[in-house]
Design brief:
mainly beta; 2 domains; four-stranded antiparallel beta sheet; 17 strands
């Protein structure tokens, strides 16, 4: 099952972000939270959608059940960390906003990511991609958007591919010669995905408020 998310931000004067009608996203002081349901015993492909100041596993997953595992992509493999009986992670990894990772929770939970949007309203954030190298990422601005959407702004060259986790395998989409995606998938806040860019490029997103 695709991860479902909800972002709500604190503040009395809230302005709506550009997201799908199925979600509610607000921002005033750009502090908020993203609720992510995770099915126990199954791998979920997630991404950190907010900056909480430290972005360590102990702060990102304060209620992770004993026996849970996190896998962080190194570029060639995974670095793992597990939740032990003492209530601590074997390695208290740092996962920055926009960085993707696999999570396998020992039981079903709803994890709440709390923090700030990575950039100020009107500012941009850049994620670099090397040519032909798989990167595990997510949107560092908690948008819900299609691959061709202007908020996600994932503009990649012909021959580029992304892989989205379905819960048991990957669904792929590629950029054709017309510059369009073979499947115009939707990416949600807190969702991770693999990108293999055909050329070295920068993914630039702007934090738009409406």
């Amino acid at each position: 099952m695709r991860t479902k998310t909800l972002l709500c931000a604190a503040g009395a004067l809230a302005a709506s972000l550009a997201v799908s009608s199925a979600q509610t996203v607000y921002s005033a002081n750009v502090v908020g939270y993203v609720n992510v349901p995770i099915t126990g015993g199954q791998y979920a492909l997630l991404a950190n959608p907010l900056d909480n100041g430290t972005n360590t596993l102990s702060s990102l997953f304060p209620n992770a059940p004993v026996g849970s595992t996190i896998l962080v992509w190194t570029g060639t493999g995974y670095q793992s960390s597990g939740m032990g009986f003492g209530g601590t992670w074997s390695t208290n990894l740092v996962i920055t906003p926009g960085e993707g990772f696999f999570a396998n929770m020992a039981s079903t939970i709803t994890n709440t990511f709390v923090g700030n949007v990575a950039v100020a309203p009107g500012s941009s954030v850049t994620t670099p991609f090397s040519a032909g190298v798989y990167a595990l990422v997510g949107s560092p601005i908690p948008y819900s958007d299609t691959l061709s959407g202007t908020n996600l702004n994932l503009q990649l060259g012909t021959g580029s591919t992304i892989l989205v986790w379905t819960g048991s395998g990957f669904q792929s989409s590629g950029v054709g010669f017309g510059g369009t995606w073979s499947t115009n998938l939707t990416i949600t806040p807190g969702e991770g995905f693999f990108v293999n860019s055909a050329t070295a490029t920068n993914w630039v997103q702007t934090f738009q408020t409406q």
